[in-house]
Amino acid sequence: MGWGTLYGVGLGPGDAELLTLRAFRVLSQVPVIFYPACGGREGGFALDILQRAFECVPMLGADGSPARGDAIHERCRPLSTSMPRGADAERPHWTAAAEIVADVLRSGQDAAFITEGDPLLYSTFIHLQTALAERCPEARVEIIPGVSSITAAAARTAFPLAIGDERIAVLPATYDPDALERLLDTFDSVVLLKVSRVLDRVLTILERRGWLANAVFVERCGTPGERIVTDVASLRGQRVDYFSLLLVRK
Amino acid sequence: MGWGTLYGVGLGPGDAELLTLRAFRVLSQVPVIFYPACGGREGGFALDILQRAFECVPMLGADGSPARGDAIHERCRPLSTSMPRGADAERPHWTAAAEIVADVLRSGQDAAFITEGDPLLYSTFIHLQTALAERCPEARVEIIPGVSSITAAAARTAFPLAIGDERIAVLPATYDPDALERLLDTFDSVVLLKVSRVLDRVLTILERRGWLANAVFVERCGTPGERIVTDVASLRGQRVDYFSLLLVRK
């Protein structure tokens, strides 16, 4: 029997209706769905999005009967994506996860690995894909792109990411705020991801350059806990969620 | 009677199955769907994606009956998004388009404006939204984000856009190739959109810096005319489509 296919499925930023039709179809059909589980915690954000999608959508399943949330649940398996305590390299850990996935594929069954957002944009799927390619180059992988938290946050705030010939930079939180200032001179829009750790320093730069008025803050986009702040100066000194981003235009 | 809502709907990059569940639901329900039509040409890329989506998806419509492609077609209207010959400013043109949309909303009906990719990422929807807000601030607008050609091209080529704390730049074709070289020193991934006009000069830079091996070229992503080229040096001197992009990592 030939190998099954691994589907890397992007579920979008958190709003269950932002799954794509393909993600929904594939997840209706595959016999095994791996979801990223951190440490000893059951569940997780991706599994939560998946369950909400299958609860809320009146769509026909592959066999013509309605797809149901409880049927999905029976096919889900946690795959640990957190590093063992004290580990100083990711590779051995991902090799073990890839071996678990490979066991399913080797039996001829297809499997999916679900991830919030997009599988190739700041996602753990990239590590799984790399480890699987190293150990089992014969395994076929198909990636289903997802709506990113970037375009979803822009949609919620009607924020133009790019018009005409404009340039966009996307940066996570660990950049140097001085480098950020130089980037804002070069780019028309800058998206700052996971901004929580450096928020006050970023706000100081935006204020000094007169860019505060065009900035928008979005926390936990598309989830029940979503928060949108257009008066971003009011965020100074606040504790914000890890899943937060700042959209900035000059 | 109150005003209707305008939905700005991103259809994704061209593959009909990459519509989101929300895009599909809203487009199943709204009485009027405006599609961007250039010049005297009927149809267009966004309308083509829409029709393929409603032909291929076995999904229930809002009233419980299957949504059908021909039913969608009866609700579609072209909205000219090309500038009149000789016009030197976009504003009057978009004001006229906004007035056509406003007439529908004013009657209490909802409407959608469809666009390939995402409505806020290099899309004409931004101009319509601006013109409508100026003329009819009472009109409610809701934006449905879409999968961008960037994440879709990455998915087709298993190209990691960003891992961990990496930085991404997105640039259209009109940048200065020397500036590009400096950006490639600052960013981990660079996405070059509409690369057709400057392809040879970009290839020269990538070759000189030893970055050719990690670059991937994707033309008309997700359409029947899709082309993927991993040996990007072979593209030198070729004519490539306007809807082409280059994914570059160091």
Structure at a glance:
With 250 residues, chain A is of the alpha/beta class. Chain A has eight helices and ten strands. In chain A, strands 3-2-4-1-5 form a five-stranded parallel sheet, with helices on both faces. Chain A has a five-stranded mixed sheet with strand order 6-7-10-8-9, with helices on one face.
Architecture blueprint of SSEs:
Two copies of one chain form a homodimer.
Chain A: E1 5-10, H1 21-29, E2 32-37, H2 45-56, H3 69-74, E3 76-80, H4 91-106, E4 111-115, H5 125-135, E5 140-144, H6 149-157, E6 168-171, H7 177-186, E7 189-193, H8 199-208, E8 216-219, E9 227-229, E10 244-249
Parallel strand pairs in A: 1-4, 1-5, 2-3, 2-4, 6-7
Antiparallel strand pairs in A: 7-10, 8-9, 8-10
> Radius of gyration of chain A from the CA trace?
20 Å
Structural class of chain A: alpha/beta
Q: Give the full name of the CATH homologous superfamily of the largest domain in chain A.
A: Tetrapyrrole methylase, N-terminal domain
| Protein chain pair with the most extensive contact, residues per chain | A-B, 61 and 61 residues
What is the terminal-to-terminal distance of chain A?
Answer: 57 Å
Top-tier CATH class of the largest domain in chain A? Alpha Beta
Q: What's the arrangement of strands in the largest beta sheet of chain A?
A: 3-2-4-1-5
CATH architecture of the largest domain in chain A: 3-Layer(aba) Sandwich
Tally of separate helices of chain A: 8
Order of helical and strand elements of chain A? EHEHHEHEHEHEHEHEEE
Q: What value does the average pLDDT of chain A take?
A: 87
The biggest beta sheet of chain A reads:
5 strands, parallel
Multimer state = homodimer
User: What's the structural domain tally of chain A?
Assistant: 2
* Fraction of residues in β-strands of chain A: 15-25%
Residues in helix, % of chain A:
25-40%
